[in-house]
Amino acid sequence: MLTDNFNRVHDYLRISLTDKCNFNCAYCNPDSSNYIKLLRENILSFDELLRLIGIFGNAGVKKIRFTGGEPLARKNVFEFFLQASKLKTKFNFEFAITTNGSLLEGNVSKLKDAGIDKLNISLDSLNSERFYRITKQDKLDAVLSSIKEAKQTGFNPLKINTVVMKGINDDEVTDFVEFAVINDLNIRFIEFMPFGNNAWTSDAFISWQNIKSKIEEMYELIPVNTNPHSVAKDFSIKGMPGKVSFISSISDHFCSSCNRLRITANGKLKLCLFTNGKNEIDFKMLLNDDSLNDDDILNIISDTLKLKSEKHPPVNELLTYEENNMLSIGG
Ligand code: SF4
């Protein structure tokens, strides 16, 4: 078991398959960003990824989420999922994916066939002009079709991730709840988080409490019990289908029950979403060191995990983390 010095068991691994993305979302990959894309040779190969998944399987990891950039933008990704599904059976993993949904249309059943159990689709506006302003892509219809197809293919509950930015899309939160009611979805409102290249400001920040208050002008939200490791605060909507959740990393963090580790697209192990290159293992280097076998690498992971901080630093420190880019971490 992968346990840190605060007795937190880490059994959830998030893997960024690529830093490539076809969107330029304001909170992750704004087109004004000075982020330098990773070279292909620095991205973990499928064989390296599969070996790492095996190593973490032996370490007791139970859930793996594939992220990006946009994971479906990675070439031959469905072949990779099929290969990974063999390890899914061996280790009884739960597989999940977070996607912007624009490359999903017509491919949803392939995800199911490849053993993906859970699907989160990012959607930050229901208004096509605003969708374009946030993502720099005119793809709202494609994303809405993917959501419909995912529901029809049996991804239930289907989770919709919405990053709420003040003065940008916070006036749509009740529209999103209505969308969740009509389509019986789990809408997850995510607090805007500071990352190296997203020009975060406190003016554009709105806390989960304030988002919830806006919603409660129209809907009655009822708290529902949530898995203690879950990042979300979940609510049902009185008398209606659908679910509303809040992810409050900034205003009300959930670090005490953190069970997550991350592998970046270029093979760095991040002990926490918010680390600025500190205590990051370089798997690309370790996997290509012939003197190390899988057990050796597992021991290095376990030792490094003892260096994990109890919680993430305060915002003013996060704002100095220029190297911490959502694009290669995957959230
Ligand atoms: S901020 Fe870091 S420690 Fe806190 S919950 Fe997220 S990953 Fe875990």
Structure notes:
α1 packs parallel to α2 (77-91). The protein has a twelve-stranded mixed sheet. 43% of the residues are buried. Helix content is 30%, strand content 17%. It is an alpha/beta fold. The protein has a domain at 12-158 and 255-329: TIM Barrel. It has eleven helices and twelve strands. A hairpin with a 5-residue loop joins β8 and β9. The protein has helices at residues 46-58, 77-91, 108-113, 128-135, 140-152, 173-183, 208-215, 283-287, 294-305, 315-318, 326-329, and strands at 12-16, 63-67, 94-99, 118-122, 159-164, 186-191, 221-223, 232-237, 243-247, 260-263, 268-270, 281-282. Iron/sulfur cluster is lined by residues 249, 253-255, 258, 260, 272-274, 311-312.
Topology:
Blueprint: E1 12-16, H1 46-58, E2 63-67, H2 77-91, E3 94-99, H3 108-113, E4 118-122, H4 128-135, H5 140-152, E5 159-164, H6 173-183, E6 186-191, H7 208-215, E7 221-223, E8 232-237, E9 243-247, E10 260-263, E11 268-270, E12 281-282, H8 283-287, H9 294-305, H10 315-318, H11 326-329
Parallel strand pairs: 1-2, 1-10, 2-3, 3-4, 4-5, 5-6, 6-9
Antiparallel strand pairs: 7-8, 8-9, 10-11, 11-12
Helix pairs in contact: 1-2
Bound molecules: iron/sulfur cluster.
CATH class type of the domain at 12-158 and 255-329: Alpha Beta
- Structural class call reads alpha/beta
The chain-level mean pLDDT equals 95
Q: Please write the string of helix (H) and strand (E) elements.
A: EHEHEHEHHEHEHEEEEEEHHHH
CATH topology of the domain at 12-158 and 255-329: TIM Barrel
Helix content: 25-40%
- Unreliable segments of 5+ consecutive residues: none
Which word captures the global form? globular
